[in-house]
Every structure is written in structure tokens, then in C-alpha cells.
Specification:
Largest sheet: 11 strands, antiparallel
Structural class: mainly beta
Number of strands: 11
Number of helices: 2
Strand order of the largest sheet: 6-5-4-3-2-1-11-10-9-8-7
Order of helices and strands: HEEEEEEEEEEEH
Strand content: 35-45%
Amino acid sequence: MDRRSLLAAPALLLPGSLSAQSQSEVIGRVEAYFNQLTTLRARFLQIAQGGGSAEGTAWIWRPSRMRFEYDSPEPTLLIAADGQFFHFDRELRQPSIVPLNSTPLGVLLRSPLRLSGDVTVANVQRQGGLVSVTVHRTGRAAEGQIQLILDDQPMALRQWVVVDAQGRSTRVTLTQVEVGGRFDPMLFAFNDPRFLEQLEQGRR
């Protein structure tokens, strides 16, 4: 996967059989965890299927907002806000925008998060103190999927693995996680002209 993608790698969990009741219980707890989560800040390590890696800082402000700022020399900036997913290459000075719901990552930012209806649960696992839920858009599995991996007790997001429409995967692992903080709204305001001005000033 190329550096423009924020989309997963091998799963941490091995397939395990859970009863329908156990699967339902895990799904309910995952939904409850995300629905009480407002803000999250963490360091991240991204590993692509081919072995390429990058690090940076992630901000998630539910609902609908996320920012991934990569450490130098990686020039990528990724922001989700206002139902859109914004990619900016600082070297090329070139922005691109796609609908947030067209990416598997859009599931993370839904509020309320319900893993049913237009989202289909493809797999549920529990092993070694971790749980995972793999989902895709209902009727659109070919577009890609996301596997959410969380600590079981207490529940906390640790990693996600995204497979895109071409079957390429990228794993994002979170460390130094902080929740409940306050963020500057300008971190996510890519539709504000002042935001692009700040990007340009940051290059000087």
C-alpha cells in the first residue's frame, strides 16, 4: 500500500469460535465503548502490507472528526470532518477529498455507532485479553473492511486493520492513548481558508 493510504495488516487475533450470544455481547460492548468515547489522542504506528511503516500523532473527536499527522519526513496529512476525508501531501502541495462514508474508517466516527443495518459484522473474535470486530458496509464488502481490535477488560481501542477494495491492507497501532481531552477545532477545519494558510506557513 502506498503512503497515501491509511487503510490494515495481519490481524492480532487468531480465528476463534464464539457462540451467537457471546458475539452479540462483544458487539454490544464495542458499540457502548465508542458511543461513550468523545476524544482520543495517541501516537500511532502504521504498517503497510508490503512492510513500509510510518509514525505520527492521531486525534479523534467523535463524531465525524479525525486527524492523522505523520512525523517527518513523511509529508502526509489526513483529516476527516464534515462528512469528508481530506488528504494533503505537503511535498506536492496537493489536496484531495473523498466522502468519509466511502472509506472503512468512516465506521469509527459514526455517532451513534451501531454495528447493524447498513453495517455488516463479518467476524467477531476474543482471545488473549483482546476482542475484535470486523465490519464492512452492508452489500458493499468489495469496497473494503475494517477490523477493530480492543482490550477486553477494560475495553479500549488499541489497533485497527483496514483492507481496501484491492485487497491491500494496513495496520494502525495506537500507543500513549489519552482520552477525554480538549482539542482546538482548527485541527479539523480544512474547509476554512485559514487552515490552508496555516499549512502553507508550516512549510516556511
